[in-house]
């Protein structure tokens, strides 16, 4: 069917508000960022920017801090994404089975998701402080340790606390997503599998997982992006200490742009992150498609 | 019938579009703008100011950004005493004061400089002045204001030096401060020692006071809440070291000199002996640690007096000067300057700056713990009655941190390097040698 001119105008007008918002708040900043990343854009040159080609990119990639923060972000993503997906999936499986208090449990598991990141981070910091709740519990109540453990004061100690927070906070979202997916799996598939003599394990691998693959992919992509975008928890819990050892990509970018005024560096760093994320998303899609065939 | 329906649809679409556009323009207006700002500002911020100008012809509003905490006595004085008095003395000028957090203010100014929405006047941490000067957003007061010398002559020279970059003045000193040693009187009595006068005594005291208290909790002899220049400079300078040469052009041979390295080593040894702490993410906050007897000594500024009064009014502490090393007792000079931006309404802004540094305003602020820089205010009864004497004494020998544009970055690198030394990853010599190279690069830029 041919689209008449009139309805073309209509479609255009309908799309216009959305496109405008998308263009002004998404496309324009990305383009501007891309342009900024080729300029010397910092104190002293804020009013007249000098084109320096790939210098910012060279500086980022040659920077030892960049390696540290990139590895931190990568580890954070590699740990928290499978962690919260697995935990969320297990909770969803359990909640899918029970018949009583369904709503109550769902609310309980979802509560961390609606808690503010700042509040949750401060509570985690309070628990894991050198003078915090956990050390008090270990030392004075169960008497396992004889001195306070400095949980937050090393690179991997601080990162672990932030990752625990990430997983704890992510379980609820994964639960909701997987629960919705589980409820779409037709029950006759399970009945047919039961007739063929499938065990619960077989059903899980051959019926449940293949049926919700789309949801798994969706969660994987969203959470990977989320993992690389972690900011609040790190900023609040360790603030990047000791000596930027626990900084992640975003907290480092923030530090470079707004504490030292290196906007060009920060723009190049953002752009590199965007490219890495895009590549990761493509790989994830490809992997899931291969399984399909 | 059909046609009517279609037209209605079109109308609905158009309405949606218009409404969303209207919503978008709402976002475009910046929250703070100079209502009679310079041309660049007016053109950048659309037509809003025009309405105000025509309504009251003579009236100008100047925006003043500061980092007096919103709940503080300083802010009360500013809003309820100083600004009303200024507006009474200068009819036709209104002051719109906005309070920011210290770190936010720095970022806000960076961002506003990008979008041409700077205020007229701001109270700046004196360490920021060189940075903003290099950005080209501050007004050189000695060039543009004919009565500059009369005004600056009434203010302390040491404090005014923080506003001087490359031979020109980009602000007026507003208030000054420095750090002195606060100590827990009871703990010193119990240990049978006197307040430390020299660096050796300080090291001994820190070690002696550390350990465990009656409740089995760990206590530390001294607390340092961070490892930046503000924290390290008093130790480096007092022990004869320095960050850069006098001209602030070179760091090799200064930041890695034997004296500087010795200062860092001294602190690292104390940390490894469990005698000092405070900069780790998991440590007890400074005021609480001091007030509850977990940290026995601090180096802090005049605001600590009010903080302790508020949080731990019954806690018994005393103060003494920064322990003297080979080079004497040299603390770090803090304080704020008041400066105007190039986009300001300069006449009104200058009037306000002169008012804020006047004897009256400085004396009012002195009542809330701000040490004045106005020479007449320093002689006033308020200042004499206040317990500033130890700070005023320390200011005579205190030095300011390097006034270079790349100081923020140097400061950040310094704390990373010293953190590595503290954690035993590098020796002080290694870390400082590497830092010297980096500083030289930054200073050469």
TrEMBL record, chain A:
InterPro entries for this protein: ABC_transporter_permease (IPR051393), MetI-like (IPR000515), MetI-like_sf (IPR035906)
Subcellular location(s) per record: Cell membrane
Signal peptide: none
Keywords in alphabetical order: Cell membrane, Membrane, Transmembrane, Transmembrane helix, Transport
Protein name: Sugar ABC transporter permease
Source domain of life: Bacteria
Main location group: membrane
GO BP terms, alphabetized: transmembrane transport
Keyword Magnesium assigned: no
Membrane topology: Multi-pass membrane protein
Organism: Simiaoa sunii
């Amino acid at each position: 069917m041919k689209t008449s001119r009139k309805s073309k105008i209509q479609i255009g007008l309908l799309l216009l508000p959305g496109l405008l918002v998308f263009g002004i708040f998404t496309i324009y900043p990305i383009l501007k960022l891309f342009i900024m990343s080729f300029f010397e854009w910092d104190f002293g040159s804020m009013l007249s920017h000098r084109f320096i080609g790939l210098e910012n990119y060279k500086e980022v990639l040659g920077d030892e801090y960049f390696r540290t923060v990139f590895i931190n972000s990568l580890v954070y993503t590699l740990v928290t994404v499978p962690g919260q997906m697995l935990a969320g999936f297990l909770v969803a499986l359990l909640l899918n089975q029970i018949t009583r208090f369904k709503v109550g449990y769902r609310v309980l598991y979802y509560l961390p998701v609606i808690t503010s990141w700042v509040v949750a981070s401060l509570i985690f910091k309070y628990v894991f402080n050198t003078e915090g709740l956990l050390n008090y519990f270990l030392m004075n109540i169960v008497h396992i340790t004889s001195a306070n453990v400095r949980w937050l004061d090393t690179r991997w100690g601080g990162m672990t606390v932030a990752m625990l927070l990430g997983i704890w906070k992510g379980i609820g979202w994964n639960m909701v997503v997987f629960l919705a997916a589980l409820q779409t799996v037709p029950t006759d598939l399970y009945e047919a599998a039961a007739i063929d003599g499938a065990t619960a394990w077989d059903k899980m691998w051959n019926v449940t997982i293949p049926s919700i693959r789309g949801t798994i992919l969706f969660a994987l992509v969203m959470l990977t992006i989320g993992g690389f975008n972690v900011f609040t928890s790190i900023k609040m819990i360790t603030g990047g200490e000791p000596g930027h050892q626990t900084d992640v990509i975003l907290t480092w970018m923030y530090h470079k742009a707004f504490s030292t005024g290196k906007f060009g560096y920060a723009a190049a760093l953002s752009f590199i992150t965007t490219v890495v994320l895009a590549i990761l998303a493509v790989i994830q899609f490809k992997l899931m498609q291969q399984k399909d065939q | 019938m059909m046609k009517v329906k279609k037209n209605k649809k079109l109308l609905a679409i158009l309405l949606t579009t218009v409404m969303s556009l209207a919503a978008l323009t709402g976002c475009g207006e910046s929250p703070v703008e100079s209502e009679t700002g310079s041309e660049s500002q007016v053109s950048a911020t659309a037509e809003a100011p025009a309405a105000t100008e025509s309504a009251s012809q003579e009236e100008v509003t100047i925006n003043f950004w500061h980092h007096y905490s919103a709940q503080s006595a300083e802010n009360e004085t500013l809003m309820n005493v100083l600004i009303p008095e200024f507006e009474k003395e200068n009819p036709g000028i209104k002051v719109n004061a906005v309070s920011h957090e210290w770190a936010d203010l720095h970022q806000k100014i960076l961002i506003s400089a990008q979008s041409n929405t700077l205020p007229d006047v701001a109270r700046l941490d004196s360490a920021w002045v060189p940075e903003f000067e290099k950005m080209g957003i501050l007004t050189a007061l000695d060039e543009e204001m004919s009565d500059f010398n009369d005004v600056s002559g009434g203010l302390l020279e040491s404090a005014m030096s923080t506003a001087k970059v490359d031979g020109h003045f980009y602000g007026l000193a507003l208030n000054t401060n420095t750090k002195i040693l606060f100590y827990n009187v009871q703990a010193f009595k119990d240990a049978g020692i006197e307040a430390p006068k020299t660096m050796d005594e300080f090291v001994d005291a820190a070690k002696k006071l550390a350990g465990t208290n009656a409740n089995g909790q760990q206590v530390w002899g001294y607390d340092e809440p961070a490892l930046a220049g503000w924290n390290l400079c008093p130790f480096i300078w007092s022990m004869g070291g320095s960050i850069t040469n006098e001209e602030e052009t070179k760091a090799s041979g200064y930041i890695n000199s034997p004296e500087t390295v010795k200062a860092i080593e001294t602190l690292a040894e104390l940390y490894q002996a469990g005698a000092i702490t405070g900069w780790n993410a998991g440590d007890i906050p400074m005021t609480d640690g001091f007030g509850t007897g977990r940290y026995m000594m601090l180096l802090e500024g005049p605001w600590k007096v009010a903080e302790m009064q508020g949080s731990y009014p019954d806690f018994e502490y005393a103060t003494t000067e920064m322990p003297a090393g080979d080079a004497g007792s040299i603390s770090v000079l803090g304080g704020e300057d008041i400066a105007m931006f190039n986009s300001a309404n300069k006449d009104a802004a200058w009037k306000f700056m002169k008012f804020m540094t006047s004897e009256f305003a400085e004396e009012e602020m002195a009542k809330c713990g701000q040490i004045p820089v106005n020479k007449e205010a320093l002689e006033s009864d308020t200042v004499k009655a206040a317990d500033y004497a130890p700070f005023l004494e320390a200011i005579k020998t205190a030095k300011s941190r390097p006034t270079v544009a790349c100081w923020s970055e140097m400061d950040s690198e310094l704390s990373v390097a010293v953190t590595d030394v503290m954690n035993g990853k590098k020796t002080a010599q290694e870390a400082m040698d590497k830092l010297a190279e980096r500083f030289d690069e930054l200073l050469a830029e």
